[in-house]
Amino acid sequence: MDEKLLLTYNRASLKMVRNNLHVYAMETTEPGAKTAYHESMMKIDEILENIDKKLNQM
After folding, report:
1. Which of 11, 26, 51, 54 has the fewest Cβ atoms nearer than 10 Å?
2. What whole-number distance in Å separates Cα of residue 29 and Cα of residue 1?
3. Pfam families in the record, alphabetically (predicted)?
């Protein structure tokens, strides 16, 4: 498996996880959980940004 294919697959998987976190964050009523979901989403956004940069360099 080449690097570009692997990065593309990981990007798609992370976007799916991020979308699920967004749904959970919208549904929860607990402030602590909502904060944790949003922090996780921000970390995933950083990783996605790095993957996009790498893919653009290829």
Report:
1. 26
2. 42
3. DUF1657 (PF07870)
Per-residue exposure over 28-38, b if at least 16 CB sit within 10 Å of its own CB, e if not: eeeeeeeeebe
Look-up: residue for tokens 């967004």?
22
For residue 49, give the amino acid letter. E
The confidence score (pLDDT) of residue 4 equals: 94
pTM for this predicted structure: 0.89
Angle between helices 31-57 and 3-27 (to 10 degrees): 160
Each residue's pLDDT tens digit, 15-31: 999 999 999 999 999 99
Instruction: State yes or no: pLDDT of 1 exceeds 80.
Output: no
